[in-house]
Amino acid sequence: MEYPGVGPELSYYVKEIGRVEIFVATDEEALDAYERLCKLEGIYPSLEATHAFAILDKLVPTLPNDKSKVVVNCSGRGDKDAHIVFNR
């Protein structure tokens, strides 16, 4: 997500039962991930998705190697965000 959302359900999952962990990606990290996806995959991802991809460099090394899988939904059109990226 590109913004932290707080509500009763999210609070329950995070604080009460520990089922969800919250990670933070800076705008600079998200823009770096945007450029990396453009180069490696040949796509223009949405900035919302690149915030999730930016977390992977921090998250993946902490996961156990035997059964860990990470899925990032790269939905959305990144061409709508191109003016933000190119004017940085």
UniProtKB/TrEMBL annotation:
Names of required cofactors: pyridoxal 5'-phosphate
Protein name, as recorded: Tryptophan synthase beta chain-like PALP domain-containing protein
Signal sequence, start to end: none
GO-annotated cellular components: cytoplasm
Keyword Phosphoprotein included in the entry's annotation: no
An example Gene Ontology molecular-function term: tryptophan synthase activity
Source organism of this protein record: Trifolium subterraneum
Keyword Disulfide bond: no
Alphabetic keyword roster: Pyridoxal phosphate
Coiled coil: none
Gene3D superfamilies from the UniProt entry: 3.40.50.1100
